[in-house]
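ok trying this again, last paste got cut off
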Amino acid sequence: MKFMVHGQPFSGLVTALVTPFTKSCTIDDEKLERLINWQIENGVKGVLVLGGSGEYVSLTMKERIHAVKTAVKAAAGRIPVIAGVLEPGIGDAIEAAGLFRKAGASIPLVLTPYYVNPTQEGIYQFFKKFDEGFQDPFLIYNIPYKNVTNIKPATFAKIVEDMPNCAGIKECSVAFADCVDIIHRVGDKCTVFSGEDLMMGGHVLFGAEAAIIASANLIPGPWARMFEDAKAGNLQAVIEFQKKYYPLFDLLFAEINPAPLKYAMKQIGIDAGEVSTPLLPCSQALQVKLDHMIKEMKIHS
């Protein structure tokens, strides 16, 4: 099945939101609400809370539930709120997804199990148990360069075929062909989200119906427009966007995400606070480069 919103298959740009923190590293509700409103005003069609950019692992479960409730309140039904579930154990994953559903999230985005480095059959069985335990639509999050576990396209196709509640995937493999293979195999049955800032345009041109992008925290408007250009098959506009913004993306991911992103956002007046332990603020050398890039590209809120 596809990810459905208001009875229609979802299509559009989703921002992988940072989590705004106060100076004491608690969630800043006012800043989170302001950030979501700004994203919607700039054409974003959905938000992901509690992903990697949202510093999931630094939050307690109570704080995660609070973040979902705050985001749902701010979105006020205008756009879907996707909630990341980054738990390595099946029991914890099912429990977290249920708690986020109760808090109002539209759908969970469930990370592939990590640390134990399961086989493809092990990955399949993990999501089979999740499907049976959660019994509602869910998305899968594949990001092999972060957790060393990679869902191969054939495995994901089998999951989609056997588990009706699997509504799609956020594909973050650095192998461009893997996303294209997934689109070819099951793009008519589920929603394929591109999850890579530097590959999104190509993925959408090849048929991905949606995207979840971290750097849209900083430039939601240009990203939303680029997505529409890609959906319309405007290859030249996609090329121009990638050429223009590649140097910025190179800096935003030069150090551990979301530290550079939060710094850049603060410089344009969208203050999301600092990162939380164990992450560190971006280096002074990178701050200087980001300041220059923001000024040169005339990025503003």
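PB: full thing came through this time. The radius of gyration is 18 Å.
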